[in-house]
Amino acid sequence: MLSVSKFRIAAAGSIISAIAVYGQLRPDTAIEGFRLPLFDDSGYRIWQLRGDLATYRSETQIQIDGMKVSQFIGDDENREIAELTSPEAVFHFDTTTAYGPGELHVKTGAFEVTGYDWLWLGEQKQINFNRDVKVTLYEQIGDILK
Length: 146
Hints:
Blueprint: H1 6-22, E1 29-39, E2 45-58, E3 61-72, E4 80-92, E5 97-108, E6 111-121, E7 126-137
Antiparallel strand pairs: 1-2, 2-3, 3-4, 4-5, 5-6, 6-7
Protein name: LPS export ABC transporter protein LptC
């Protein structure tokens, strides 16, 4: 999966902070149909964070109900290569982390992973699941499981 730098996540947090300051957002302000795209240095969209309902908690934190994150290849095709969905997520832009108590479903062309009580560590490019993890592989992996 493509990585998202801490700078880009911080920039997204800054955008939300600017909206909060100039748009008079106060903690617990809810935004229906939330959408936040992230672009690479060449101007290609590489991520898009969406939610049915985003609730502004602070300059560095938002809660998203009905979260969907799409990851794109980052070229002219604008092809989606991965999708992450969760009924509830809390994003911390200052620490480049997100978590959710419920299910997180990750789907790519090569695999699907579903688990509960999850934590995304953006700087480490890692997702940790704490319970009920299921992995489905769609590509051959050779003899590593003998």
